[in-house]
Design goal:
Helix content is 30%, strand content 18%. It is globular. The protein is an alpha/beta fold. The strands form six sheets. It has an eight-stranded mixed β-sheet with strand order 5-4-17-16-15-6-7-14, with helices on one face. It has a six-stranded mixed barrel with strand order 22-26-23-25-24-27. It has a five-stranded parallel β-sheet with strand order 10-9-8-12-13. The protein folds into three domains: 194 residues, Rossmann fold, CATH 3.40.50.740; 201 residues, 3-Layer(aba) Sandwich (Dimethylsulfoxide Reductase, domain 2); 117 residues, Barwin-like endoglucanases (Beta Barrel), CATH 2.40.40.20. Bound molecules: ligand MGD (2 copies) and molybdenum atom. One ligand MGD binds next to helix 6. Molybdenum atom binds next to loops.
Length: 674
């Protein structure tokens, strides 16, 4: 029997799946030809892992586990749900009675993006009054703050269906060839117009584009001023739009006097002729701008996003078919209230949140951290300050709870491990942060062992704790019905499951169609109060000094083609495809250091060092190195990955990560003994 479902990974694609099931056992996962975007294909990593690791129940966590000494050794004994939940409930009750609920930290993200499993547990933590490690600080926070302040919303992007009306697609700091491979294949590569990519790396998407503006990382503000300078000189600015809808433009014009297109070329390393060509192409005909997430993981990532956000306003690429920008499309854009889904009203008046950049500090202070929940995330692999986190996770007085499908590097440090059900084992809805769709995730088998969906784990914990708020016990059926009523009134889950994916509306409205911006002035605010309060200037600032010191390289650690963050890193076939943990170097940088492919180097940062194998590659330009993110720690022989190098570099807005601003130096070392 073939059953339609949807891939809930944290990715732009949201592929339609067909699950082949016999006698309650899934034996094949493939793409659904009926899906409107992905049309029967799925990416290599999902095709491999969903048909390997994910069909092998023996690899899954099947029962709750309790640690046997010592922490980190990965030795556990099976316990029942009652024992596990009583123990946790007891500790949580005691802390609440002591007034120390805030010392319960919870880290979570989008290990599964299906709406209920991803969001419902927040209801419990809101009600309890725990401290949230703010998920987006590790990912996309600065960009949200920047675009939110400027446009009044960072979560209302263009509708991708409007590509049909666009003549130009400008991809700025986004690499869908890795981060959304089916979107890359079916949306970007099939586009008949002109594609321009702005990326320091020669990604597959960049290599295929009509123009690739290969700037030095972090110099994007200068590039934007260069483009605007060309537009100004050639009469391509939309003066009427600017006068009517943009606040703070005069200061931009002043900047253009200090950063000419020629100066922009010198700062960014992009030839002047390419800057001129890109400006003309972007400004002259309907153009879409896709703003990436990797882009803003820079020390000045907020200012960079703010600068890139100037382009559609300056060129009047707005409110018409085939124009606008996209950062992410939020729940709200498809009519769904995220705060209702997370029952935000249950939280204390001033909910407690800290940045991932401050997590190591919090975990080193026992008064601030008595309990740590890690669910839908894999902290030790993905977060900065890896060494400090590892030391803190070994603390005897910290109770660590990990909820996952697999025994991850983080789970090995847990006191209590709880087994989660995967997407084949319960019904849910999956929205997209790119397309304006809603999709069905359909249960096709019973959970492995006694695993439970995230939401059910927290219903049971709420019950053990004696909580009574009805929001904490809402059933999956009621939640699905409520979400569907918000997104697609009149559609039942059964109807949705029949087709897999539906657009929430047939109408394709241009982004900001009514030109009403939800800012204090109603205009696009270049000089929004948020920026000034954060210490930024009235306009994005050009950093002429953005290069790494002479002997150093700038390290970028972007999405790995074979991993989904760290997910799939424990699949044997995926590991074979990935090969060794590599440092990609441009041939010129390798030559000056007398390094060849296959050599080993110790990579040093301000925080630590890591051994990597050199791979000479034309992906990075000279001065830049690449180490793809999120490999599991336990397979590469040094219990560390690229995040050991990151001392928690912080960007300029929202306490977000600046992991792509790391400077590194290299020292040749002998090959490790195998
Ligand atoms: N160096 C570097 N580091 C980075 C980045 C970078 O660019 N460079 N990028 C950052 C970004 S953008 C992000 S978003 C983070 C992501 O980092 P994480 O949030 O850690 O994402 P994953 O590594 O995929 O971990 C998700 C975990 O959820 C588990 N999981 C899957 N489904 C379920 C479920 O239904 N229930 C439960 N309980 N668990 C489930 C998976 O098995 C996996 O262990 O990494 C960040 N780390
Ligand atoms: N295969 C796979 N897919 C994924 C993920 C994964 O781990 N693996 N992660 C998922 C997640 S959590 C996220 S948030 C998205 C992220 O999606 P993307 O934003 O596409 O992801 P990244 O690969 O982090 O970065 C994209 C590009 O930003 C560029 N970049 C870095 N610094 C700069 C800069 O200063 N200027 C400019 N112009 N460009 C810069 C990098 O060179 C990189 O090519 O992908 C999702 N999809
Ligand atoms: Mo992310």
């Amino acid at each position: 029997m073939l059953i339609r479902s949807t891939c809930p990974r944290d990715c732009y694609d949201r592929c339609g799946l067909l699950l082949r099931v016999a006698d309650g056992v899934v034996n094949r996962v493939s793409g659904d030809p009926a899906h409107p975007h992905t049309r029967g294909s799925i990416c290599g990593k999902c095709a491999t892992a969903y048909n390997g690791l994910w069909l092998d129940d023996g690899q899954r966590l099947q029962t709750p586990l309790k640690r046997i000494e010592p922490k980190g050794a990965g030795e556990f004994a099976a316990i029942g749900w009652d024992e596990a939940l009583e123990m946790l409930g007891g500790r949580l009750r005691t802390l609440a009675a002591e007034g120390a609920a805030a010392s319960v930290l919870h880290a979570h993200y989008q290990g599964t993006y299906s709406a209920i499993a991803c969001q419902f547990p927040n209801r419990f933590f809101h009600r309890y009054g725990a401290t949230e490690i703010e998920p987006s600080t590790i990912c996309d926070k600065a960009g949200h703050v920047a675009l939110g302040a400027m446009y009044g919303s960072s979560g209302e992007g263009f509708d991708p269906r409007t590509l049909a009306q666009a003549k130009t697609l400008l991809l700025w700091g986004v690499n869908p060839s890795h981060s959304g491979p089916m979107t890359d294949r079916h949306w970007v590569a099939e586009f008949a117009g002109t594609t321009i990519v702005v990326d320091p790396l020669k990604t597959l998407t960049a290599a295929r584009a009509d123009l690739h503006l290969q700037l030095y990382p972090g110099t994007d503000v200068a590039l934007v001023y260069g483009l605007l300078g060309v537009m100004q000189r050639e009469g391509l600015l939309d003066e009427a739009f600017i006068a009517r809808h943009v606040r703070g433009w005069a200061a931009v014009e002043a900047q253009l006097l200090t950063c000419s297109p020629a100066q922009a070329a010198a700062i960014t390393g992009v030839p002047l002729s390419l800057i001129e060509e890109a400006a003309r192409i972007y400004a002259r005909a309907a153009s879409l701008l896709w703003i990436g997430i990797g882009l803003q993981r820079q020390t000045h990532g907020g200012d960079i996003t703010r600068a890139v956000g100037l382009l559609p306003a300056a060129a009047g690429q707005m409110a018409r078919p085939g124009t606008g920008f996209l950062y992410t499309n939020s729940y709200e854009i498809v009519g769904v209230s995220e705060s209702r889904l997370t029952a935000a009203h249950l939280a204390p008046a001033a909910p407690l949140r800290i940045s991932h950049m401050d997590l190591a500090d919090a975990l080193e202070d026992p008064a601030r951290s008595r309990v740590l929940f890690n669910w839908n995330t894999n902290l030790l692999v993905s977060a900065p300050n890896q060494q400090r986190l590892r030391r803190s996770l070994a603390r005897d007085d910290l109770l660590t709870v990990v909820i996952d499908l697999f025994m991850t590097d983080t789970a090995r440090y847990a006191d209590v491990v709880l087994p989660a059900a995967n997407f084949m084992e319960f019904d849910d809805l999956v929205f997209s942060y790119f397309h304006r769709t809603v999709s069905a995730q359909v249960k096709v088998r019973e959970p492995v062992g006694v695993a439970l969906p995230n939401q059910e784990i927290f219903r049971r914990l709420a019950q053990v704790m004696g909580m009574t708020d009805p929001e904490l016990f809402e059933t999956d059926e009621a939640l699905i019905a409520d979400l569907l009523a918000q997104a697609r009134p009149g559609t039942s889950f059964a109807e949705l499951a029949q087709v897999g994916t539906m657009f929430v509306s047939d109408e394709v409205r241009p982004q900001f169609a009514d030109l009403a911006f939800a800012t204090p002035s109603g205009c696009i605010e270049i000089d929004a109060a948020t920026f000034l309060q954060a210490g930024l200037a009235a306009v994005p600032a050009v950093r002429a000094d953005a290069r790494a010191p002479d002997h150093a390289l700038r390290l970028i650690s972007p999405s790995h083609r074979w991993l989904m963050n760290s997910t799939y890193g424990n699949d044997a076939d995926v590991r074979r495809q990935m090969g060794p943990d590599a440092l990609l170097l441009n041939a010129a940088d390798a030559a000056t250091r007398q390094l060849a492919t296959g050599d080993w180097v110790a990579v040093h940062s301000a925080a630590a060092s890591l051994r990597l194998q050199v791979e000479i590659s034309d992906v990075p330009p000279s001065g830049v190195a690449v180490c793809y993110k999120s490999r599991w720690l336990q397979f590469d022989g040094q219990q560390a990955n690229v995040n050991v190098l990151n001392p928690g570099l912080r960007g300029d807005l929202g306490d977000g990560t600046a992991v792509n601003s790391l400077d590194i130096t290299l020292r040749p070392v002998a090959a490790p003994m195998s």
